[in-house]
Amino acid sequence: MTRVGIDELDFLEFYEANPSNFPLELQELIQMNNVGELERRKLGFTAAHPRQNSMTELARILFEAGQHWPDPNYRFSEKDEQILADRLAVPEHFSILELEIFKAIVGPASHELLTLLWHRTQRLKKDWWQHREMQVLLLWLGAIMDHDMTLVDRLETDLDVWFTNYRMNTRMVEFMPNWQYGHVVARWLRHPTVHNENKVHHIIADLRTMGVETDARWFELMLARTRGSQIFHNLNLIDHPKQLKLARTAGEVVRNRRQYLGVSRSDVAVAVSESSLGRFENGRTQLSAASMLQLCGDLALLPSQILTLPNRIDEHIPGEISLRSVFRQVTQIQTFGGNNDDILNLIHQFTTQLPGMPKSIVVIQNFVLRSAAGVEPNSDEEMRQQALQILVRLLQMNNWGALETHATEELTTWLSPEQLTMLFEKGKRVILKHPLTVGIDYYFSGLSKAIAQVVDHYSPNVGRTMLAQFKWVLTIPDPTPMRWQAAGTWYLANYVLAPTTANKNLVERYVHASLRVGHPDAIDHLKKLWLKRVPENFINDCVTAYRE
To answer: Which residue of 5, 69, 250, 505 has the fewest C-beta atoms within 10 A of its own C-beta?
Structure first.
């Protein structure tokens, strides 16, 4: 995978295409209340797993929660709550599966289950804070839906510190609208005026206007539960504590995962014998690719997670070899004033970590990382030639992964307007056809840069052509933060090219929607991107004019 530039999350669409695999992407179906598709997915999974075990029980709970989400009277049985508590006993395990479970269960969960899960998050070390923040946020939304205001207040104390300092943790940006929605609903519950209720509806309306239907519908479903729900108690819930176990091999990851999920070897020994699975877990044999893939589906793992699942209780952290992780490290070094030698050493370590990596892959990875860090050693002409070669490759591919989406952001500096148009039109087709494409945020960040670059360096006619070509960014159904920012870039570029009162009003309306919905990050981004092209206080005046 590393040799050919594949990221572990590149497998997500491939994994989800097989209905016999444990579902890891039900959230959009739940948010849109797509009961028919949920039922189809459920039938596919249950047909492939006729024998009952802890994973089939967990899948049953998830499907039922999804089908009954809008019903404020739907609650879990005591048995099901105990299953959920036992499956979520290790807060350090918070990957795709755990996030999916949290999103599905926080509405129907009892006060005791929400509180138990919250207490577990408090043992997380500082390095895990981004996971703790997500867990506490979702539990807080569950408490809001139950009008459990004592618990709401306690959780909000933590969240307020984290989310008001979102610039210190960029991963939180994705969840800012959830924080803003919950904050407004909590205020309405404390002070139930018509004015405060209307603020909730304004958030949903702004999301819908910007094409973010998944979030708009998600908030509508939560609001429906909030209107009709109340605190629900399960006094029989028992805490069965577990500890994170260290795993240093693929077999140990599988064994620990299986035990954590309460699955026996006989439960998952379908494509491989029980004895072979035991030998694999103990490091005495390997599994075939087919057996490994089926094992992943039974244990809710993407294939590469067996090899890269993080173990954060010592310095042995598999998975730090992916482009995504190195890209984040490079940008962090640059952001916090590190020197170029540290960046170059990191890039060298990454691109030479395995022998036999194809030169074409190494060239792209080097280009992406060096361009992101601003340490390009080559001449402008050499960089443009490399950029053109990478562009040709991307245009020939109908399925992009993390390598390709990262490349789109860094290509913008080196391509002409015509080439940029081809690149981002191709990207649009890819992400519409494959919405689980990894790194869509980087694609939209690149599009923002491309629009600003063309408006800044080319004639107004070329800029207007660019804007006309990409007006779809205002309504494309993608909820990622950078897509929201790209829409703001479009509005501001439109004003720069034609500074009329009407276009200024569009920018102001966008800024107000960003503040209302919970995207202050977009405003920060626009200030930096358009620093030299608009009056100093132009965006600040729009912010000042905002009235809640």
So the answer is: 505
